[in-house]
């Protein structure tokens, strides 16, 4: 039936290609702006400390709570430490924690949601029960408990810095997968009944193939948005932990940590809180725009 | 006479529904209720009936997209319901389906070429990707689309074109039987004729058998060799197309036929209108399901006993206490 006719292949090249995902992404202006801003932030925290090589822990009481000046472009804190240096250094930790925890949350959430949405029956009920359980757990006491229990063991295993990093990512990501799981399950329940999935079943596609090729790509939109939100949540959660003395050591100036230290001086030194707040705000905003752009770029129906 | 390609006997599917708290009283909807028919290679069986009469469910049970609860399906001498994984996979090559809604039946994130080639990939047809591309191009050409369309996405096509893509996907595995689940009901009338003609051409060229599901008799008249009329999960009449149109036996068939408009000004057919609504399938009328709306019902039997299929002519069967 499908007898090969070799002329037909030649004409294929004439047809203009449908816009690629990248072309669609570029048309999303805010997403491009977000990418540029986020790229700048990442470049700053990576390269900044090499250029602005003021030590982050040099205490100078003569310059306590100094407003921004030539010597201290972003001012100083209550110990006279240079804020620019601290922000640049701390940004590495904050951004790394934010992205890694988001990945953990999205991967766990997608796995749980996909398995629940495909299985139906007892496994689905169990997984949703587990999700509800995690949602109902008070996060903070649980965080404290886990960190008290495992911090020393992990530190011994991989060293203090990496140990705390892994622990925080696991804990923050591990407690934020539930909304993703619910979203993915809901998407799966509707999409698996759509006719194109039934068509794949009728063609004999395996369950894995149905999920990977047909259901998951059509379920990703809300997941991406949820993922971008969890980056912001993770950055904030890390600062909460640091504030409680359970995150990174107090002398590691993550953005959240600086913000918390600054909160008691809002009226006399607003710049102290302003700049880390701005950094978090810019990061979250750009990631949200990028998420929007990604969602549209991955959807071939969107031609703008 | 050779053995039929597809033989369906007493096929049944009931969906349980839970009524009341804790699902104490379990009821069931008998979506398909002991349906039987034969379909020969290269022929078309039209299946008509109102929405919810179980015609689509019947089609999906034959494909085992829905697991039937009773009866048997024999395809090409094989018992479909007893097949293991490998047998099932082989069956998927022989039986395909075309869906009603061309907007829902194509994955919006795959190109036309990828959609059609997927069928070949699953069944290991074609030597390599390049060979499959040649086959896809030939298939697109066969269903009246251009080979260069393979790089486009479904949303770039009209309903009729998408339905052609759906047909090409079904043809990609070289099936013997295609279940057409209302393939033209979602299309404009002018496009309907094109798609129906395409299906007929393909049947002539490739010797396909169709089970052609539709909700009115005028569409199936052109394509069918035999026609089965369904009402609330049961087949009430089955006959060769010409015999059914010339002499419908079941009062429900008569009513359906009289509803077809006559393209002749001034001529008025006697319309046999049915009173009442389609009964609730959860709680269908006793005896003959149709007796609550039947214009010729007389026997008390109609309300108490299910009419069995009785022959009433050459290859003509009807399930009515009053006829046959």
From TrEMBL, chain A:
Membrane topology: Multi-pass membrane protein
An example Gene Ontology CC term for this record: plasma membrane
InterPro entries to which the protein is assigned, alphabetical: BP-dependent_transpt_permease (IPR050366), MetI-like (IPR000515), MetI-like_sf (IPR035906), OppC_N (IPR025966)
Subcellular location: Cell membrane
Gene3D superfamilies reported in the protein's UniProt record: MetI-like
SUPFAM superfamilies: MetI-like
Protein name per Swiss-Prot or TrEMBL: ABC transporter permease
UniProtKB/TrEMBL annotation, chain B:
InterPro entries (alphabetical): AAA+_ATPase, ABC_transp_ATP-bind, ABC_transporter-like_ATP-bd, ABC_transporter-like_CS, Oligopep_ABC_C, P-loop_NTPase
Subcellular location: Cell inner membrane
CC annotations in GO: plasma membrane
CDD domains from the UniProt entry: ABC_NikE_OppD_transporters (cd03257)
Gene3D superfamilies with a match to the protein in the record: P-loop containing nucleotide triphosphate hydrolases (3.40.50.300)
Annotated ABC transporter domain residues: 6-257
Membrane topology: Peripheral membrane protein
UniProt keyword Nucleotide-binding present: yes
SUPFAM superfamilies reported in the protein's UniProt record: P-loop containing nucleoside triphosphate hydrolases
Molecular function terms from GO: ATP binding; ATP hydrolysis activity
Gene Ontology biological-process annotations: peptide transport; transmembrane transport
Keywords in alphabetical order: ATP-binding, Nucleotide-binding, Transport
Protein family according to the UniProt entry: Belongs to the ABC transporter superfamily.
Name of protein: Dipeptide ABC transporter ATP-binding protein
């Amino acid at each position: 039936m499908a007898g090969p006719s070799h002329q037909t292949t030649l004409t294929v090249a004439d047809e203009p290609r449908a816009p690629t995902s990248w072309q669609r992404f570029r048309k999303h202006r805010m997403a491009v702006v977000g990418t540029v801003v986020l790229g700048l932030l990442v470049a700053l925290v990576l390269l900044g400390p090499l250029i602005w090589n003021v030590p982050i822990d040099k205490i100078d009481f003569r310059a306590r709570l100094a407003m921004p000046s030539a010597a201290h472009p972003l001012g100083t804190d209550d110990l006279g430490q240079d804020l620019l240096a601290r922000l640049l250094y701390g940004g590495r930790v904050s951004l790394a924690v934010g992205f890694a925890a988001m990945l953990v949350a999205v991967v766990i959430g997608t796995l749980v949601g996909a398995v629940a949405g495909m299985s139906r029956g007892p496994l689905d009920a169990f997984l949703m029960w587990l999700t509800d359980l995690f949602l109902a757990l008070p996060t903070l006491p649980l965080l404290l408990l886990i960190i008290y229990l495992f911090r020393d063991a992990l530190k011994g295993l991989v060293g203090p810095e990496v140990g705390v990093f892994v622990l925080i990512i696991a804990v923050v990501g591990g407690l934020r997968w539930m909304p993703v799981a619910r979203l993915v399950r809901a998407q799966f329940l509707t999409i698996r009944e759509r006719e194109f999935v039934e068509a794949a079943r009728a063609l004999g596609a395996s369950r894995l193939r149905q999920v990977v090729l047909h259901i998951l790509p059509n379920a990703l939109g809300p997941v991406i948005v949820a993922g971008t939100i969890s980056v912001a949540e993770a950055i904030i959660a890390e600062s909460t932990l640091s504030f409680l003395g359970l995150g990174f050591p107090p002398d590691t100036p993550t953005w959240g940590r600086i913000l918390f230290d600054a909160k008691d001086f809002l009226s006399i030194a607003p710049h102290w809180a302003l700049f880390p707040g701005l950094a978090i705000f810019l990061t979250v905003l750009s990631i949200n725009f990028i998420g929007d752009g990604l969602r549209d770029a991955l959807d071939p129906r969107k031609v703008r | 006479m050779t053995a039929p390609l597809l033989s369906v006997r007493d096929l049944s599917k009931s969906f349980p529904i839970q009524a009341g708290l804790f699902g104490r009283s379990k009821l069931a909807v008998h979506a398909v209720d002991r349906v039987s028919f034969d379909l020969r290679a290269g022929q078309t069986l039209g299946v008509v009936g109102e929405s919810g009469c179980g015609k689509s469910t019947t089609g999906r049970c034959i494909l085992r997209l829905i697991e039937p609860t009773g009866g048997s399906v024999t395809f090409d001498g094989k018992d479909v319901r007893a097949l293991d994984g490998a047998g099932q996979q082989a069956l998927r090559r022989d039986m395909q389906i075309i869906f009603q809604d061309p907007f829902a039946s194509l994955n919006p994130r795959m190109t036309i070429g990828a959609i059609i080639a997927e069928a070949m990939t699953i069944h290991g047809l074609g030597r390599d990707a390049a060979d499959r591309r040649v086959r896809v191009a030939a298939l697109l050409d066969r269903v009246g689309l251009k080979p260069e369309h393979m790089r486009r996405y479904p949303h770039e096509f009209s309903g009729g074109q998408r339905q052609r893509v759906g047909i090409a996907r079904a043809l990609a595995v070289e099936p013997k039987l295609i279940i057409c689940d209302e393939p033209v009901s979602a299309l404009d009338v002018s496009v309907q004729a094109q798609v129906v003609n395409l299906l007929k051409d393909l049947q002539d060229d490739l010797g396909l058998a169709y089970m052609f599901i539709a909700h009115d008799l005028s569409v199936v008249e052109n394509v069918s060799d035999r026609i089965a009329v369904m009402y609330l999960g049961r087949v009430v009449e089955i006959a060769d197309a010409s015999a059914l149109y010339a002499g419908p036996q079941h009062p429900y068939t008569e009513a359906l036929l009289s509803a077809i408009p006559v393209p002749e000004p001034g001529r008025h057919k006697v319309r046999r209108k049915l009173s009442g609504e389609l009964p609730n399938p959860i709680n269908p009328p006793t005896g003959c399901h149709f007796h609550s709306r039947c214009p010729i019902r007389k026997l008390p039997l109609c309300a108490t006993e299910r009419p069995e299929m009785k022959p009433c002519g050459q290859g003509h069967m009807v399930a009515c206490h009053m006829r046959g």
